């Protein structure tokens, strides 16, 4: 479904080049949820943005839905893949109602039955009809993230890219959103990539997980291996140990 | 306002698109009206509009152009509330009709300046690269023209008149708007909600006009309102120099100019239109300040 | 544990607003000895407000009331702004979530820390500098002389947080509030910072209030935990017993977090009971 070989992203800022992603390769099978974990500066979000065509990248292979994907995407290509952003406060237009936000993709792609589709999308993500004409500032963080998910899914894309979708949310809201994503993954038969700094979140939702550090791929392991701690790289081991909480050195 | 309607408008859970839009508008209007600065400014601007619209009635049938050489330079009295000028024309009715000229200038300048500034600024900010460089250098060139001198040059080349004055003012007034719109656009374009529309496959035109321009609009309106005082003063200055509205049109700047010779003996001839310029400029400034508070995203 | 350092009884913090009074903290009572006390809760639970109230940092028009609020025998309720200034920094201190907003961007970090010394301790400029460098060393900054002359923007997140801790501890307070001190940091860095805090607390015998939303961190780092919900302390337990807590909210919170140890098909969601706020 998604194939990436030797993906490299370099940003130029003020004469210096930053190698955000350095030669990453992986494949995501149809219906799989693939996880990417790493700390800040690991380039995990940049990989996702490169696949979405939001940042320029070079690669030997970059396939989306079995076809090579260029930097400039046609409208039809855009429809294959949608994105959920980290910060639900920044990802919704502040002057548009939920209704406006959800109608926008339908209008862009000239899809009919707008009214029913918007209603269905709102119900799908567990929002109520009363939320339809609210502005983002009238919604809580969790509700906003639901709107963002509804917007991503309203065109029925086969691929969903999730960039830290719950890291701005409280634990209890995170649980609701993760459950929702698990449910939608089933009902929409989605292929998705989930990027997070939280190992537990990725292990909960993903089958296979890529560990990234400083723009490079450390290793790709299964969720079961992650839980069991059967990993090869020292960095992964450190990461798992640190995620399990604080340990007193001498104790 | 009936409480039922008020509740319907202020509802946190609107049930239709219309209610959502009306509710939001109502909240906006309410925040302007409850903000003392904005309210005073709004009242002054409303007064200006009313004077302009109802000038023929408010002046009680006195024409602003009828001369009465026998009663020239008469002091304010029951017959002539603000006195008469050097040709015996009623200053009260001339001041009222002057509001029309001022309003015309305000309207024409806004109509020219805001769209040009917005389009140039958002295009430069969103597209970046060479488009940005070219557009911003053009902006810099226009910014470098001294406003009054350009207006003088225009008046000299095209002949004096209110249209030419407006063109001259507008030509030098739009660059700051382009700059504001550009910097706002650059901030907005990076935000996730614009990236989301890009990913949905929206065209550049759609992104600019449906998503970016509405967000730049409020700061442009605030700036325009604040600038209005300066524009009115420039227009009055041109009138004073004889390059704006031409006699016998009642224009405040020209009226001040004609009262200049008699300012010591017949103070009202220059002072009354001067007061009008002052009050209207103040009104726009207050309204602009108030609007800035109302539009401030931190307060919502 | 002998005499408690801090005694709080019936603490209430309210904010009058346009639509009525917001009760940010409701009837909170607890004591703190020379130990690590965790306060856990979600956003809006009043955990940060509690911390700020203890340092007299509730902004107007917020109102703080309590039956008792005393620190080492001093009645905090009767403190004037001057008294607070004397207490803050010298005897009690606070580390915030993001060092970027708490450090002056145009002064070197060394100067800022040394200034704190000069302000609170009767020592000379030379000695202040020495203490600063010693303190930077204590928070395990490898080249303290070099970092002394750096500006805040030149520091990484973990370094910045260490500098903050150094600044807050240089006047040797015996009570520290850490409000989400590691939430902005990567996990591997997070544990280093926690270790520094841990050592300082045990070496100097300080009392620490550790405010966090992260159950894993709190349960592994603290001795005791208060769980706050809607401004109330709904439960108090030993940190290691957090997994076996009694209150339905705490239990739901523990079950809602995805875990590396257990694979759950579905995460538990918190069904909020208005009774909890009674």
Question: Could you characterize what this model shows?
Answer:
The complex is a heterotrimer of chains A (251), B (300) and C (278). Chain A is of the alpha/beta class. Chain A has a domain of 131 residues: Rossmann fold. Helices cover 35% and strands 26% of the residues of chain A. Chain A contains nine helices and ten strands. In chain A, the strands form two sheets. Chain A has a six-stranded mixed β-sheet, with helices on both faces. In chain A, strands 2-1-4-5 form a four-stranded antiparallel β-sheet. In chain A, a hairpin with a 2-residue loop joins β1 and β2. In chain A, α3 packs across α4 and α5 packs parallel to α6. Chain B is mostly helical and 300 residues long. Chain B starts with a helix and ends in a 5-residue tail after the last helix. Chain B has a single domain, classed as MetI-like (MetI-like fold). Chain B is flat and about 75 Å long. By secondary structure, chain C is an alpha/beta fold. Chain C has two domains: 189 residues, Rossmann fold; 73 residues, no CATH class. Chain C is built from ten helices and eleven strands. Chains A and C meet through α6, α7, α8 and α9 of A and α8, α9 and α10 of C. Chain C: GO terms for molecular function: ATP binding; ATP hydrolysis activity.
SSE layout:
The complex is a heterotrimer of chains A (251), B (300) and C (278).
Chain A: E1 2-13, E2 16-28, E3 33-38, H1 44-52, E4 61-64, E5 67-68, H2 75-78, E6 81-84, H3 98-108, H4 114-124, H5 141-153, E7 159-163, H6 171-187, E8 191-196, H7 199-205, E9 208-213, E10 216-222, H8 223-228, H9 234-243
Parallel strand pairs in A: 3-8, 3-9, 6-7, 7-8
Antiparallel strand pairs in A: 1-2, 1-4, 4-5, 9-10
Chain B: H1 3-10, H2 17-33, H3 36-53, H4 55-58, H5 91-127, H6 129-144, H7 147-158, H8 162-189, H9 192-199, H10 204-240, H11 252-259, H12 268-295
Helix pairs in contact in B: 3-5, 3-12, 5-6, 5-8, 5-10, 5-12, 6-8, 7-8, 8-10, 10-11, 10-12, 11-12
Chain C: E1 6-17, E2 20-32, E3 36-40, H1 47-54, E4 63-65, E5 68-71, E6 74-75, H2 81-87, E7 92-95, H3 99-102, H4 109-120, H5 125-138, H6 144-148, H7 157-169, E8 175-179, H8 187-204, E9 207-212, H9 215-221, E10 224-229, E11 232-238, H10 248-256
Parallel strand pairs in C: 3-9, 3-10, 7-8, 8-9
Antiparallel strand pairs in C: 1-2, 1-4, 1-5, 5-6, 10-11
Helix pairs in contact in C: 4-5, 4-7, 5-7, 7-8
């Amino acid at each position: 479904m998604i194939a990436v070989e030797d993906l490299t992203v370099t940003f130029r800022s003020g004469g210096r080049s930053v190698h955000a992603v350095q030669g990453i390769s992986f494949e995501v099978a149809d219906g799989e949820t693939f996880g990417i974990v790493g700390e800040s500066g690991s380039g995990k979000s940049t990989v996702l943005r490169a696949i979405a065509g939001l940042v320029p990248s070079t690669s030997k292979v970059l396939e989306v839905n079995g076809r090579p994907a260029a930097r400039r995407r046609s409208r039809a290509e855009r429809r294959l893949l949608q994105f959920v952003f980290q910060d639900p406060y920044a990802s919704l237009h502040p002057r548009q109602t939920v209704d406006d936000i959800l109608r926008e993709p339908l209008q862009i792609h000239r899809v009919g039955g707008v009214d029913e589709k918007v209603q269905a999308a709102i119900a799908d993500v567990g929002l109520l009809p009363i939320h339809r004409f609210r502005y983002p500032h009238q919604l809580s963080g969790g509700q906003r993230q639901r709107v963002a998910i509804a917007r991503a899914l309203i065109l029925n894309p086969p691929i969903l890219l999730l960039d830290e979708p719950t890291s701005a949310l409280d634990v209890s809201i995170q649980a609701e959103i993760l459950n929702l994503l698990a449910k939608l993954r089933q009902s929409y038969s989605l292929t998705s990539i989930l990027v997070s700094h939280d190992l537990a979140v990725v292990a909960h939702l993903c089958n296979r997980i890529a560990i990234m550090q400083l723009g490079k791929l450390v290793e790709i392991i299964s969720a079961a291996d992650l839980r069991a701690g059967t990993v090869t790289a020292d960095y992964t081991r450190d990461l798992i140990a640190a995620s399990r909480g604080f340990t007193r050195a001498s104790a | 306002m009936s409480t039922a309607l008020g509740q319907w408008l202020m509802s946190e859970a609107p049930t239709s698109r219309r209610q959502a839009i009306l509710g939001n508008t109502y909240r906006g209007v309410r925040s302007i009206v409850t903000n003392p600065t904005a309210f005073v400014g709004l009242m002054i601007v409303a007064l200006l509009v009313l004077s302009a619209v109802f000038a023929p009635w408010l002046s009680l049938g006195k024409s602003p152009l009828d001369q009465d050489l026998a009663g020239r330079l008469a002091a304010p009295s029951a017959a002539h509330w603000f006195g008469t000028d050097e040709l015996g024309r009623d200053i009260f009715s001339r001041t009222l009709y002057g509001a029309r000229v001022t309003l015309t200038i305000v309207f024409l300048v806004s109509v020219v300046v805001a769209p040009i500034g917005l389009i140039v600024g958002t295009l430069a900010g969103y597209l970046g690269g060479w488009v940005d460089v070219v557009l911003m250098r053009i902006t810099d060139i226009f910014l470098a023209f001294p406003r009054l001198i350009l207006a003088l040059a225009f008046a000299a080349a095209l002949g004096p008149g209110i249209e030419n004055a407006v063109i001259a003012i507008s030509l030098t007034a739009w660059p700051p708007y382009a700059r504001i719109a550009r910097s706002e656009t650059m901030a907005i374009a990076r935000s996730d909600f614009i990236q989301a529309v890009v990913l949905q496959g929206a065209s550049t035109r759609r992104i600019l006009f449906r998503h970016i321009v509405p967000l730049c609009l409020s700061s442009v309106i605030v700036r325009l309102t604040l600038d209005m005082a300066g524009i009115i003063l420039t227009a009055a200055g041109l009138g004073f120099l004889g390059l704006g509205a031409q006699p016998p049109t009642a224009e405040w700047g020209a009226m001040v100019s004609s009262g200049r010779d008699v300012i010591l003996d017949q103070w009202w001839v220059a002072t009354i239109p001067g007061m009008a310029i002052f009050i209207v400029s103040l009104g726009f400034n207050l309204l602009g300040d108030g609007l800035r508070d109302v539009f401030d995203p931190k307060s919502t | 544990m002998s005499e408690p350092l801090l005694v709080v009884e019936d603490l209430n913090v309210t904010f009058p607003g346009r639509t009525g009074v917001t009760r940010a903290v409701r009837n909170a009572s607890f004591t703190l000895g020379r130990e690590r006390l965790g306060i856990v809760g979600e956003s809006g639970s009043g955990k940060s407000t509690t911390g700020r109230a203890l340092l007299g940092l509730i902004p107007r028009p917020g109102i703080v009331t309590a039956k008792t609020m005393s620190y080492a025998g001093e009645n905090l309720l009767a403190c004037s702004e001057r008294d607070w200034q004397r207490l803050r920094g010298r005897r009690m201190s606070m580390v915030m979530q993001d060092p970027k907003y708490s450090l002056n961007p145009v002064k070197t970090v060394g100067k800022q820390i040394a200034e704190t010394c000069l302000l609170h301790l009767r020592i000379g400029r030379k000695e202040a500098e020495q203490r600063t460098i010693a303190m930077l060393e204590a928070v395990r900054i490898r080249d303290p002389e070099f970092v002394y002359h750096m500006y805040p923007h030149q520091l990484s997140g973990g370094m910045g947080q260490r500098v903050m801790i150094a600044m807050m501890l240089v006047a040797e307070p015996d009570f520290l509030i850490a409000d989400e001190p590691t939430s902005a940091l990567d996990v591997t860095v997070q544990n280093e910072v926690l270790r520094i805090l841990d050592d300082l607390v045990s070496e100097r015998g300080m009392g620490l209030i550790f405010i966090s939303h992260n159950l894993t961190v709190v349960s592994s780092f603290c001795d005791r935990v208060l769980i706050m919900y809607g401004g109330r302390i709904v439960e108090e337990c030993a940190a290691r017993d957090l997994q076996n807590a009694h209150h339905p909210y705490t239990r739901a919170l523990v079950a809602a977090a995805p875990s590396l140890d257990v694979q759950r098909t579905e995460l538990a969601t918190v069904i909020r009971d208005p009774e909890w706020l009674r």
